[in-house]
Amino acid sequence: MENNRNRNNENKPKKRKNFGEDGFEHWGGYMAAKRAKLLDQFKDSEIPRLSNIFEGVAIHVNGLTRPPNDELKKLMAAHGGLFHMYQTSATTHIIASNLPNVKVKHLGSVPVVKPSWITESIEYGKLLDYRRYLLYTNQSKTQPRIDFPIISNEQVRGNRPPTKTASDPKFLEEFYSNSRLHLISTLGAEFKQLIGDMRDKSDGKFPGKEKLLLKAKKHPIYLPHPVIMHIDMDCFFVSVSLRDHPELQNRPVAVTHARNGQLTNIKPEQKANREQEFSLYADRLPAGVTSRVDRLDTKSSLSEIASCSYEARQCGIRNGMFLGQAVKLCPELKTLPYDFEGIKAVSRLLYETIASYTLDIEAVSCDEMFVDVTRLLKETGLSVDDWAAYIRSEITNITKCPCSTGFGANRLQARLATRRAKPSGQYYLRQEDVENYMTDVKLSDLPGVGRATLSKLERIGLRTCGDVQSADVGVIRREIGQKAGETLKEQSRGIDNRPLNFHHERKSVSAEVNYGIRFKTIDEFYAFLHNLSEEVYNRMNDVNMRARCLTLKLLIRAPEAPKETAKFLGHGVCDSLTKSSNSNAILNNPSVIFGEAKLLYEKLRPPFGDLRGVGLQLTKLERNCSINNALSEFLKGSRKPKEVQKKAKDEAVVRKDESKRNGSKKAKSGNPNAINDYFSKTKQSSGALKSCKIDVNVLNELPDDIRKEIIEEYNLQESVAIECKRNDGELTRNNGENNERFVENRFENLSWNEIKPIIKKWIESDEFPYDIDIEMIAEHFKRLAIDRKIETLPAIFNFLHRNFSSLNCAWHEAYYKMVNIAQEGMVARYGNTLLVKRRFPCCEM
């Protein structure tokens, strides 16, 4: 029956489909029409034509590439090529970063090329030979090879845009965009700031920890010692780059700017300069320290290796080694370029992952951190080993990069444990094992022990921590100094009393350049110095700081050093000069910074033609003071100063009238007003400054004519202008009795136990707190923070919150005001705020 049905169907005439003359009437017509439509859209794109480099080239992108698919499409449109969304017979090249063998076998004769063929052809301004960029080749071993002409290195080099020097206006932007050291330092500072911001805004909820609590054991565990975790990403720069080059996994790989370890066409004078420079390096090294250039010849590349894989390290290659030296140790070494965007993305994923479990984090760099996991382990009931395995798996899955973790009772033990854990492992240095473990640790593995210190210690026969443990501390002190000797003695036993720093305090902001510094005129140098001043100002402004000290750092070509350095446009052998400003002026704009830097240079006056490095460092940092709202509104003309004074007086009268009408027992009790009595002299001063709330620091920094105009408008006396002189962080007043925010701190010599009864009497005697009382107490708390005396502040604010809770909202507002003023001191000193209670039954901060 089934056969009959099939036979009948076969006898029926087939219905002809009518598509019209649009390409759909043929077999495969839909896809042909779609491809044609996409090609027409590409040709009609509004991207301006920049060149015809890729004329006759039609590419198809297969898989994930860098630059991505969309970017390559734009590049082809801008430079005369075609972009095929689907591979066709007209496709000339396939662009890919990685393809499985199954796909490669079906590609036929179409070459598979790396995306760098596109970008570098654009850079050189001509179509480069694609064979240098082949990802795979289908050529058999027996197939004869045709010798097509290949563009030589000299031809390519001749078409490169000339390398910029510091005299170029765009040099700084290009230099910092390609500087790994700039990236590392910038990301380190960013993540320290990120952790601080996260701690400030935290609501106490941690999504990662909550997810972990659902899986973890519920019973608590006993931890006799703190548990500090050290996380370090393995071969970080290499790991990030290998995500796009899986074919290089498990092979010796290094990340560096250069491609080749050997240079070609070295001129005789360049050879002589190199030999002279290498000799000078060796002569200047301390006794016993070997030179980094010992195994380099005149053709070796001086490009530094930023990161290398463990397979490369097995050949003797190390981070910081010159590429020319590395390829001699490992001829099959593969080099990869920096992936700055990938590094930034992976770093952020790392920090966000850990921050979802705890914020007890000390950021170290873009790929390294310390974490206090004591509380986390107690709450989850996880053992150290279980937590280590779990978090390493999480980080690897999220970032696609391996990491290692070490654990110990302090930061030193945790860091040394990580060394034991690498690569891609974990290790917990338990307290009972510390003494034996430290015996075999090399002194070079200890933080702070560099080549020079190590050389001194080796001279007296000290090479391991075990040697130091048995050595006389007096001998060590005489060799490396008293403080360094004592620290080394403690470290050799695994002792490190430094706590983790969760609140990073920025000590300096700097910008330095030691590449491409070649000036032909003094005007070129001053133009560069001005650009560098803007750069360092922008960095300082990004962290909301201002400075009071500027240091100019210069590298000057050594008298005996050749003018042309071994490394192209490098600094070579130099002498260093530094000079700092003593004016103590506020450095808060680029022009002021440039003026100070120029004066410092004119005092040193080295030959500008011999400059090889220039740096600016800003120190004595302090938080930018925001202009008081009342003053800001006045300067904008939105409110007249006399209206401000009148409003303040009216509010005071209304408050007193309300107090009388309410018949408050406190108001009628006749109890002495402790704070009012304590500050009686202060209250006799003029209320003008209080009512308009001018920030005297801002007032004093204004030009004389503007300051006088404001004083006249506010009907103030000239005496309100206070000369702020900083001496060891203290403020001294000059006829400042009228400034209620800068009156003498009469609490200064009182302990908290002595201040507490005064505050209790104040609460009992006043129905509403006066602003002057609030500000006076709060200024004392602020001063405690600035002077690093914050031990009692949590107890103080707990006391205030507890006693103010039962009072009216005016006292609650007073509490918030005191908190805000005290936090100013915390931010100025520590760059972070104090954790205090912020809620009352009637309101929330």
UniProtKB/TrEMBL annotation:
Its cofactor is Mg(2+). The keyword Ligase does not apply. Residues 1-20, 638-677 are annotated as: Disordered. Its main location: nucleus. One of its GO terms (cellular component) is nucleus. Keywords: DNA damage, DNA repair, DNA synthesis, DNA-binding, Magnesium, Metal-binding, Nucleotidyltransferase, Nucleus, Transferase. One of its GO terms (biological process) is DNA repair. Residues 640-661 have a biased composition (Basic and acidic residues). Deoxycytidyl transferase involved in DNA repair. Transfers a dCMP residue from dCTP to the 3'-end of a DNA primer in a template-dependent reaction. May assist in the first step in the bypass of abasic lesions by the insertion of a nucleotide opposite the lesion. Required for normal induction of mutations by physical and chemical agents. Belongs to the DNA polymerase type-Y family. This is DNA repair protein REV1. It comes from Phyllotreta striolata (Striped flea beetle).
